[in-house]
Amino acid sequence: xxxxxxxxxxxxxxxxxxxxxxxxxxxxxxxxxxxxxxxxxxxxxxxxxxxxxxxxxxxxxxxxxxxxxxxxxxxxxxxxxxxxxxxxxxxxxxxxxxxxxxxxxxxxxxxxxxxxxxxxxxxxxxxxxxxxxxxxxxxxxxxxxxxxxxxxxxxxxxxxxxxxxxxxxxxxxxxxxxxxxxxxxxxxxxxxxxxxxxxxxxxxxxxxxxxxxxxxxxxxxxxxxxxxxxxxxxxxxxxxxxxxxxxxxxxxxxxxxxxxxxxxxxxxxxxxxxxxxxxxxxxxxxxxxxxxxxxxxxxxxxxxxx
Length: 306
Ligand SMILES: [Zn+2]
Fold this sequence. Notes:
Elements: E1 5-11, E2 25-30, E3 33-39, H1 43-49, E4 57-61, H2 67-70, H3 73-82, E5 89-93, H4 97-107, E6 116-120, E7 127-130, E8 134-140, E9 148-154, E10 160-161, H5 163-168, H6 176-180, E11 185-186, E12 192-193, H7 195-198, E13 199-200, E14 207-211, H8 221-224, E15 229-233, H9 241-246, H10 252-262, E16 266-270, H11 280-287, E17 293-295, E18 301-303
Parallel strand pairs: 3-4, 4-5, 5-6, 14-15, 15-16, 16-17
Antiparallel strand pairs: 1-2, 1-18, 2-3, 7-8, 8-9, 9-14, 10-13, 11-12
Helix pairs in contact: 10-11
Bound molecules: zinc ion.
Zinc ion (ZN) binds at residues 14-15, 24, 66, 68-69, 213, 271.
């Protein structure tokens, strides 16, 4: 059975928040686990609004150290302390974040109630996190300062058990795991029961690529190829392409061009410049090259289904 794999948008504005839009933060929920991608100002309030339990976040991934992607972190950490968090928290970011947070702690005389482990992301793509079900890799973006995207990939799921097959051959509990992994079953009489009689094909592993601030580049095309859902920044429309180049950001058309080349199933657009009030042109522009393009706004949740 498919586990829940949901992206919740907490903020989607570029550079400065507006009266309608917070800056970048997203939650990836996979089954019972919550992963926070970027943590802009107001993230903890957005988490509360979207009823996402703060204390259940154990891993935070920060794309880069521009304020619109991490300035909510000190506030969130202070709140976690005040709430009496005990569990270790892991934070992954380009180098420098630990010093920033340490200054907050030392100047306020705070000794946090929980341990924070900072992981400096190394240049080039690397595996940052993995568990039984998922892995999370960094993707190198092209921006004014060191910046990373993140690819969240489901590991190959176990095969689905056919109840009738299990009952028919009275399969013992201790053999179930190997059967779920695709092995045949040997009965007490020496008969080989092929795995296909006992299980059905699992769904294809799903993946989500989060491409935070970046100029248009095909340098990470291979890493995002075949993703089910790609989030790609679209700070500008093509009419402002010159500013996009100057500020190392992308246009909606460029995001869609990359989505098409990568053969993803769905493109989510975000990180809109505060100059745009109406976002419908982003979708129009992107759909001219990649029809499965969607603008996302805070409060939206996108389920990734196989
Ligand atoms: Zn940004």
